[in-house]
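Final paragraph of the annual report: two paired records, presented back to back.
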Amino acid sequence: MDVFESLESEVRSYCRGWPAVFQKASGSRLYDEEGNAFLDFFAGAGTLNYGHNHPLLKEKLLAYLADDNVVHSLDMYTVAKRRFLETFQNVVLAPRGLDYRVQFPGPAGTTAVEAALKLARKYTGRETIVSFTNAFHGMSLGALAVTGNGMKRGGAGIPLGHSVPMPFDNYLDGRTPDFLLFERLLDDSGSGLDAPAAVIVETVQGEGGLNAATPEWLRGLADVCRRHEMLLIVDDVQMGCGRTGPFFSFEQAGIVPDIVCLSKSLSGYGLPFAVTLFRPELDVWEPGEHNGTFRGFNPAFVTATAALEFWDGEGGKGMEKETLARSEQVEQALGKIAAAHPEAISGVRGRGLAQGLAFTEPAAATRVCAEAFDRRLLMETSGPESEVVKLLPPLTATSDELDEGLDIIASSVDAVLV
């Protein structure tokens, strides 16, 4: 590993907790260059909902490349883009009665967020964006301005303004704040709060500690936005594409955001891909006003189309139901682990197949992940103090694979706490 340490920037992070050189991957497992198999409960930070090298997606991708089809196209029309848009409309939007325009802003979740913030400000003529405590929306400057993590914000090197944080659901010592204070600030010309262009929210704060908003809180937020003519942006970069059961994580609450950000598992294969969805009347962009070199990555169109066809076809028909069943399996197992260590573990957090254990001593979570790695299970921590052991297994993980990983977690917790 000398070349990594001598040439790669100190900013590298995941490799520090997982000191292995990985070479191959299939399904729910990664293999290092020595052939050791690791069960993957990280899934590319939620990018690999369909697992590694899903055979159906791989077949479509290889056939596309072998036939000398277009790879790079900026925002030109291509056959691959047409097929993706038609499939996305037929599989995702139309069945849910959603009328959204689709923008391809660039290759990552943070670019989808940047486009959403710029569009909200352009449409409303306002500057302020309301975000929430412990939010994470990306590492570019606009996205950082609506991110809560102090360490990440500090890396910007400049003031991050034109945003106002509000308490997320269940933030205040276990109590859920209502929206009376928020509305009082909006109504009071002396509050110092400029009329916001939009509110941006994650339904489950993946990087912020797996804090899950209740449907009631989300509906209340949507009502406030509607009454005060603020746009509601849902960042579904990590929790979308079926991670919580339905394709969009906000479906459970019965709300319809004005703007939605998607990335990570949208390509289904780990290829860079992001979209920003918004109501047609918000489409006030001038041609080329927001662009990017890699906003038309055709291999990602191909695998994303194949992933949606799998989701909608016989292979994935029960995927939402299976994800919800698997989430109950995970929640029950984590609940038993937490009950066995009530002084050290404050509870189980998250929703769907994004769940974790919250530790009262943050360092314990890091040690548990290290013990799990020694037992060949990959997990990361989450939360402002890295106090949560976070599980993001592929949605395609079998019940047996989940049991295997959950047993490793239990033994890793025992090794740290007993």
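The closing record of the year follows.
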Amino acid sequence: MTALAAIAGVGSALVAGFYAAFTFTVMPALRRRPAQDAAATMVSINEQAVRPPFMILFFGTALACAGALAEQAVNPGTDSPLRILGSVAYLAGWFATMAINVPLNGRLARSKIEWTEFDRSWSRANLLRAVLSAVGSIALLAPL
């Protein structure tokens, strides 16, 4: 395993854990609150998420996965279907975040979506990206 694949795998695992925490703790807790309170809390959480600690992890892992894919292409002797699968899985979750979760967060912040509709759509996409990130980490860190 290369250092780049290891970094991508660890980053993917950390991101998967972050998403899983939302699936199993944050969103169920918010569902127990009045809709207006839940929406306001989620907007506040989203504002905190776009700070360096998470952004470095989120974008840095995507960059490491892209680098791991490039490494596989440049060095055919190290070609590993698991490393390719892991990188692609994480990046698919990354794209889901950018295509689904981020726009939903924006709509919620602008009061352009009701809490129940937001929760249903956002939570499904969050579970998808958690699973993709977990698969990515497992495949990237698996011994060959």
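The mean pLDDT is 95. This concludes the annual technical report; the extension proposal builds directly on these records.
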